Amino acid sequence: QLLSTLWFYATGQFQMSDGDLIGLNQSTVSRIVHRISRCIAKSKSNFIKFPTNLQREKESFYVIAGFPSVVGAIDCTHVAISTPGGGEVFRNRKGYYSINVQAIRSFDRQFTNVVVRWPGSTHDSRIFENSIIHDRFENDDINGMLLGDNGYACKGYLMTPLLNPSSDAERRYNKSHIKTRSRIEQSFGVLKQRFRALRIPLRTKLDNSLVIIVAIFCLHNFAMTSRI
């Protein structure tokens, strides 16, 4: 069952193809994938957790381009899904149906926070403002800052690029910011290259698609920790 599920995650093939390969029919493979995905997703807190050694994160991020006090880079990525029951609210700005997934990346290439529940039309800033991690930063529970793109509002704990830098200092700020924040875009690329199920529309029920996405993020962190 586990190997069947991993094959589905890795290839992104239809479940019928998966079933033909291992001698199972589509309905059986479907039930297996959903069952195993839920088992993995239930262990999310064991795989996806915000770092406790924030000083180490700050020092590691600083080495990249000299940006101080950074404890994570934040961004959203769209995971395509087949036509959902919710209709047009899932259609993103590029015209296809998706789940807009928010994630924060640590220096060591792991995702330290993931939010998987918002339809594709939802703006990145709204997802963040309604997240638990936002409240933690607002309440000063986390001593440090995030780096995000211009889809987010600039705050004391969330720095964004300057739209029109006019001085050398502002241009140096933007260069440092972009070079440091780009790590999360690289991680999204690695994630979708390793788990190709996230590169094609997930043709499962919406609830099952959300669980599959969470499970894949968990496995990515497991792979990073295990150096696979």
TrEMBL record:
UniProt GO molecular function: hydrolase activity; metal ion binding; nuclease activity
Keyword Metal-binding: yes
Nuclease in keyword set: yes
All residue ranges annotated as the DDE Tnp4 domain in the record: 74-221
Compartment(s) of residence: Nucleus
Pfam family, one: DDE_Tnp_4
Family: Belongs to the HARBI1 family.
Protein name in UniProt: DDE Tnp4 domain-containing protein
Organism of derivation: Ciona savignyi (Pacific transparent sea squirt)
Lineage start: Eukaryota, Metazoa, Chordata, Tunicata, Ascidiacea
